[in-house]
Hints:
Number of helices: 14
Largest sheet: 8 strands, mixed
Radius of gyration: 24 Å
Oligomer: single chain
CATH architecture of the largest domain: 3-Layer(aba) Sandwich
CATH class of the largest domain: Alpha Beta
Number of strands: 25
Structural class: alpha+beta
Strand content: 25-35%
CATH topology of the largest domain: Rossmann fold
Shape: globular
CATH superfamily of the largest domain: P-loop containing nucleotide triphosphate hydrolases
Helix content: 25-40%
Distance between the termini: 38 Å
Amino acid sequence: MDPRVSELFGAAAAAQKSGGRKNAKNGSNKFKSRSARYPKASNNPPYLPPELKLVNPTQYRFEHLATQMKWRLQEGRGEAVYQIGVEDNGLLVGLTEEDMKASLKTLRRMAEKVGADITVLREREVDHDSDEPYRIAEVLVRKVPDDQQFLDLRVAVLGNVDSGKSTLLGVLTQGELDNGRGRARLNLFRHLHEIQTGRTSSISIEILGFDSRGEVVNYSESRTAEEICESASKMITFIDLAGHHKYLKTTIFGLTSYCPDFAMLVVSANTGIAGTTREHLGLAMALKVPIFIVVSKVDLCTKGTVERTVRQLERILKQPGCNKVPMLVSSTDDAVTAAQKFAQSPSITPIFTLSSVSGESLDLLKVFFNILPPLSNSKEQEELMQQLTEFQIDEIYTVPDVGTVVGGTLYSGICREGEQLVVGPTDAGQFRELAVCSIQRNRSGCRVLRAGQAATLALGDFDRSLLRKGMVMVSPEMNPTICWRFEAEIVLLFHAKTFHKGFQVTVHVGNVRQTATVEALQGKVSLLYLPELIDGRG
Length: 538
């Protein structure tokens, strides 16, 4: 987005340089290593000029514009943003009301031709030497869902215990406000002890959809997940993680194995930064997962308390260890701008203040999710799908009349029903052959699974006792090998003791969670955690 457009729309972070005049939903992709999966946003996105005027184009011009829109949608994996009334050099010219209506009508015709819908995100008047008002507009174009090929973004939900994570997800996905006593979170819990204590101890998955017009699709409108998938053009998959310190390993497993595109750190307004909040923030930053912050429970606090919590967050984000630029979202314009800049620049950190009981500012978070672009473009996604198949196993089930079922994420390639794969490694370091009987995404049937998508695969009568979390299902052509030793660079985030040779640790590599022993430290005898350096007090 051009900086002048950001400034006109009241962006709180307009001083940050944008990577281009039009957000084409570009970014980085999910590769094997976490650092490669979340690199910095490209500084040189393809040139995508805004549209000045689309009034009564000729048939040839219309066909050209429709082809251009189709290309933009492919690059943005089903989404594109048009700026009407802005010249190629970013000059805010504006259009009269009549020309604006005609331009939007043409844009709507173009969208219908390529199978998409349009939504006007925002309009503003510009200064002009005329008595007649001139306006510019920003329009979201989104493909109509086709055979479950919706845009899917995964958001990991972090935060201290009792910060309101599960309650917020319950309100977003169920469409009903909380009663102040945790009613909204009951549908998210998987175990009896979670309901009794009110604390999440496992990883649960929830979905929130948006249709081609940007309207919310959740369980209040649809009875089943299958209906949500059929109606949605864009899906936000929330990964609800545990906040209590004794479940930290489970939280780390969720961050490493589920490959979230973004992380949402929930902070309670009345307690501020407490408990595991700093640890979760450090983990997300260490894994290079773009993070935004939600300050919850503002209905329990005075305005001064909320402002104090926000200032506390801003102070931590600006410290040398973080180097983030906090952006407080207080209006719809801020939410739109935050979503666009958040994907372009990893330093931008949007901050929302809301309540799951009163519903205050909840719509701003929904607008943010609706506009939030993917990190990878179509070209990077295509390259990933051309690689050999690799599916990483996170969960294992036994389903009556179906047999053994595994859940996880397809890291590369394409997986189809009936495909022959090998799974392992076993305790002996071997791989066994198996066949994929059926595939389900978000609890509904799916014939083809593409790289980056999460799903469950039915394996028929394959012996469950031969499977365990951390295994991979790969193409036989890959000829997989195993290793017992590896070298790694260590950054000590939080530790109470000295890190030295012979130290026993738990290693999290993707979906692998394994105990290991430190055999040697190159160049050092030991490592020591210095809290004053991590917390920025030194």
